[in-house]
Amino acid sequence: MNRLADATSPYLLQHADNPVDWWPWCDEAFAEAKRREVPVLISVGYSACHWCHVMAHESFEDEAVGKLLNEGFVSIKVDREERPDVDAVYMTATQAMTGQGGWPMTVFATPDGTPFFCGTYFPRPNFVRLLESVGTAWRDQREAVLRQGAAVVEAIGGAQAVGGPTAPLTAELLDAAADQLASEYDEVNGGFGGAPKFPPHMNLLFLLRHHQRTGSARSLEIVRHTCEAMARGGLHDQLAGGFARYSVDGHWTVPHFEKMLYDNALLLRVYTQLWRLTGDALALRVARDTARFLADELHRPGQGFASALDADTEGVEGLTYVWTPAQLVEVLGEEDGRWAADLFAVTDAGSFEHGTSVLRLARDVDDADPTVRERWQVVVRRLLAARDARPQPARDDKVVAAWNGLAITALAEFVRLVETTGRLGTEGEANLLEGVTIVADGAMRDAAEHLARVHVVDGRLRRASRDGRVGDPAGVLEDYGCVAEAFCAMHQVTGEGRWLDLAGQLIDAALAHFAAPGGAFHDTADDAEQLVARPADPTDNATPSGRSAIVAALVAYAALTGENRYREAAETALSTVAPIVGRHARFTGYAATVGEALLSGPYEIAVATEDPAGDPLVAAAYRHAPPGAVIVAGPPDRPGTPLLADRPLVDGRATAYVCRGFVCQRPVTGVEELVGQLRRAGSAGRCRDRPG
């Protein structure tokens, strides 16, 4: 009996018709294994995972494999995005046993959940032999199996332990982290490391803030070069916007075609901030198109942002996205088809499989003549219309709290900066930017309302929902941190006190239930389900670590409320990560980003005004703010907005207050005066060519 039909996870639902008697992760599954005295197979993956689909088709849909599993094991299917705590524990075990990890993750465990053999993808013949071997070992060598499991649990318990050395996260450590990133930088292709190459969004956010504080031209150039290389490559969808998960090569040409919410949210922040600091036309265009992708492709009205688009279409990777020269001519005609083939590097030989090419931007068009840009956009619209008629990849409609928080924060930054900057580019480009900003603002607000209404249950967070129904898994630390930071962003956008209240509620719950000795944090709550180890990973990987995320929320909340105990908690927590920042900068990007904000202040900028949407002082605040600053604008003494308390208009005019630790400089009523204060506050005067 397959028990996945009522799951909220699209990944589990993909396996609901398998001949395997799957269980969801639950106590009953382990009790059944104990009753039958059989080992447990824990299979972990996610819906957009290409090799998860391959293993499903080869093995889990096969009647003979299903029979082997049903007779000899209790089989549990886990969505890693819905249960990151389960994934973290068993991924640590897999890495300890094999030296590497990945998905699908295949773990054999005792009936109490102790892992004793781990791996990833297995082709069907290998998997069948493995099932037979594990069954034999369990039957004939059980004591050895149990000893192996005990050793693995001891190893992962040590790997997930809290404690260890601490140090203040100083300017010297952050400078050393920037130097380390510079030494590991790919000077030719941008980014870090070789194939497969992942977009280093959190490292880029850190380097932008480092540049703003120090004036480092090297840090800024790393960001500019990497952002341009990614945006011109196949990693970036040249027609619909948005980014794929990673490039299978070292030069951003051929992507692994899945598109994840968290990557696009974090990259939106990078391109938005790069545009803010440099006025770069490519950065603005990519930020605009990434915001449009989030609003058009992943937002579900009334339900938040979906998690991902699949890598495959009808079982074929990249089917929706790739082109041949003949297909371009068929859609565009001979002349425009040849022009597009040259522009997008589509050749007869192809850059992908079977003579097809992934679209790349081979020519500089962002700074080209307006007539060239218009032709390019017409071609893009026609190709996108043709592509939309093709079969489309599946969408994982699961709403993950943490990832929605990342998207809300990114959209808040993008929307406020664009709204306060004015019209840019040609009339068509300005109209498109305005339209994208409107729909992005609506999607941001809708997602925030969904999190507040559906995911916050009795003062605590739930991890995931689907179709408006919240799932059972409890929120983990990254959920609390990312959602609380998003609610702080919503408070700044709207001036409404309820968002600040909600952020404080989640932060207090995190401090009460996730805190560990010495200022660290566990990734699961003290009243959550007890696994074979309690995860506490301090490193930033595909998404911010729970520890980095909650520190970011603590810093923003402390700046918005003036309650210093939250800042102290943030500083103590960062001190547990600081030694890693100094040694492994590539895996602490978000922690270093927050560290730059703390080093800056962060500054609190309050603009007392009756016109928060259109006041030039507000626009200047957003364009010139020091790293990590919080900004609130609205009428003086607005209820629920501490930054506006006792901040009157001066001589009846809108007035800006630039503060650090709630100690304020002289209030100013002129834009030039405000810009001068902000430049002195954050060394922003070293940055070039701001928009507007």
Question: What this model shows, in words?
Answer:
With 692 residues, the protein is of the alpha+beta class. Helix content is 51%, strand content 11%. The strands form eight sheets. It has a five-stranded mixed β-sheet, sandwiched between helices. Helix 24 (616-624) links the parallel strand 20 and strand 21 (630-634). Helix 4 (63-72) packs parallel to helix 6, helix 20 (546-561) runs antiparallel to helix 21 and helix 24 packs parallel to helix 25 (671-682). The chain is globular. The N and C termini lie far apart (63 Å). Residues 684-692 have low confidence and may be disordered.
Question: Features of this protein?
Answer:
51% helix; alpha+beta; 692 residues; disordered C terminus
Give a brief outline of the structure.
With 692 residues, the chain is an alpha+beta fold. It is 51% helix and 11% strand.
Total of helices? 25
- Major beta sheet summary: 5 strands, mixed
Instruction: Using the CA coordinates, give the radius of gyration.
Output: 26 Å
Strand content: 5-15%
Say how many strands there are: 23
Helix and strand content put the structural class at: alpha+beta
User: What is the approximate shape?
Assistant: globular
Strand order of the largest sheet: 1-3-2-4-5
Helix content: 40-55%
On the 0 to 100 scale, the average pLDDT is: 93
Poorly predicted ranges: 684-692
Termini separation comes to 63 Å
Q: How are the SSEs placed, and which strands pair?
A:
Elements: H1 10-13, E1 22-24, H2 27-36, E2 40-45, H3 50-60, H4 63-72, E3 74-79, H5 84-98, E4 105-109, E5 115-119, H6 124-140, H7 142-159, H8 171-183, H9 201-214, H10 217-232, E6 246-247, E7 255-256, E8 259-260, H11 261-278, H12 281-298, E9 299-300, E10 304-305, E11 308-309, E12 312-313, E13 316-317, H13 325-332, H14 334-343, H15 370-388, E14 395-396, E15 399-400, H16 401-419, H17 427-455, E16 456-457, E17 460-461, E18 464-466, E19 469-470, H18 477-494, H19 497-513, H20 546-561, H21 564-575, H22 578-583, H23 589-600, E20 603-608, H24 616-624, E21 630-634, E22 655-660, E23 663-664, H25 671-682
Parallel strand pairs: 1-3, 2-3, 20-21
Antiparallel strand pairs: 2-4, 4-5, 6-7, 8-11, 9-10, 11-14, 12-13, 15-18, 16-17, 18-19, 20-22, 22-23
Helix pairs in contact: 4-6, 5-7, 8-9, 9-10, 9-11, 9-23, 11-12, 11-16, 12-17, 13-14, 16-17, 16-18, 18-19, 18-20, 19-20, 20-21, 20-23, 24-25
